[in-house]
Amino acid sequence: MHTAERKPNNSFFARILAAVSALAFCLALSGCRSEMHERELFAMDTFMSLRVYGGEAESALGEISELITRLDGLLSVTNDESELSRLNRAGKAEGLSPETFDIIRRALEFSESAGACFDVTLRPVMRAWGFTGGKHRIPSADELSSLLEKVGDGGVVLDSESRSVTLPDGAELDLGALAKGYAADEAAKLVNAGGCTGALLNLGSSTILAIGSKPDKSKWRIAVKDPAGSDAAGVVAIEHGAVSTSGGYERCFTGPDGRTYWHIIDPRTGLPASNGIVSVTVLTEDAFTGDGLSTALFVMGPEDAEKYRRTHGGFEFIMLMEDGSIFLTPEAAKVFTPQGAYAQAEIVTALIP
Ligand code: ADP
Ligand code: MG
User: Fold this and answer.
1) Starting from the edge strand earliest in sequence, which strands make up the sheet with 232-238, in order?
2) Which atom of ligand 1 is nearest to the CA of 204?
């Protein structure tokens, strides 16, 4: 009797045990699948850190590193052998790589929409200031005005069939305002193709792209740098999207006159854009638009930046001002929390009526 009763019990426990083991195995597997894989690299003149979760994270990281290194090799203006440097020297090139042609085409489209504040042919002016690879100096007003005659991306001619680009006489391309954003969006395609569940791609803190979700489904928390210190000025908490920052503090020098000169140039004057902004952080879906906009809005100045947003839409921004205040657009106000030296900052939410 006892034996007869035990038999079914044994098989019942055996089944439970099997089910529990199977569940534990699945959990272990899914634990592996959401594991974080991390990589750091130096490219595009900056330190980058990449975090990818789940799927084929490790091989996605390898592909992303190769992609960024390849784009850097094509687009760098400090490398004389890059495809962009060769185009700049010759003034014309045919049969460009698909990536170089694609970013130039998209850069010109973006520039047209951003207006006079954004110009991808600023290279001669950047060189005169010694930004990106040179020795810092302050060009004279005469030098700047003669260089500005060569600047103007409206005159760049593209032919998509032969992937050829022809530059106006003396103009040279500088894609520094967009290259990292372009690279981040291309990297996102590799994250998705690798079946990964999420990623945080930090291409030099000024271009950060959050993809998918974290294993615990909490929001991505991205720090906005305090330009004056090592602490953060605040944190942006988002589900996904790009957080792009441009600031005068990123690449700058102090002149013999004691003034600070930075690398974001107003194409109308050839001078560092100066309109009371310390940094602009832009929130967008894609990193390319965010990267371009952060530079363009910095040049536009607060009021024009807000007018541009109301006309074009599709983005939000956080502007740290020289007087210590912070301007927040409506959606940015919902996701940004000031902290550190900015914890008590005056928050402005209406720049224009
Ligand atoms: P960072 O490269 O430091 O992250 P940005 O995204 O703002 O900062 O890009 C600045 C770079 O953009 C400059 O180094 C220069 O290559 C380019 N640039 C500067 N001013 C302009 C402008 N008005 N329009 C287009 N490109 C610009
Ligand atoms: Mg930019």
Assistant:
1) 220-225, 232-238, 336-338
2) 4
Tell me if 247 CB under 6 Å of ligand 1: no
Whole-prediction pTM:
0.90
Most ligand 1 atoms within 8 A of CB, residue of 45, 75, 174 to mutate: 174
Whole-number Å distance between alpha carbons of 227 and 223:
12
Is 212:198 a contact under the CB 8 Å cutoff? yes
pLDDT value for 3:
39
Contacts of residue 110, Cβ cutoff 8 Å, sequence gap at least 6: 118, 178, 288, 289, 292
For residue 227, with 0-12 CB atoms within 10 Å meaning exposed, 13-18 middle and 19 or more buried, which class applies? middle
The model's pLDDT over 64-82, given as tens digits with 9 standing for 90+, comes to: 999 999 999 999 999 999 9
- Per DSSP, the chain holds a count of helices (H) and strands (E) of 10, 17
84 lines ligand 1 (CB under 6 A): no
- Which of 125, 264, 288 best tests ligand 1's pocket when mutated (most atoms within 8 Å of CB)? 264
Closest CA to 182 of 201, 169, 156, 167: 201
Nearest residue to 275 (alpha-carbon basis) of 330, 315, 245, 320? 320
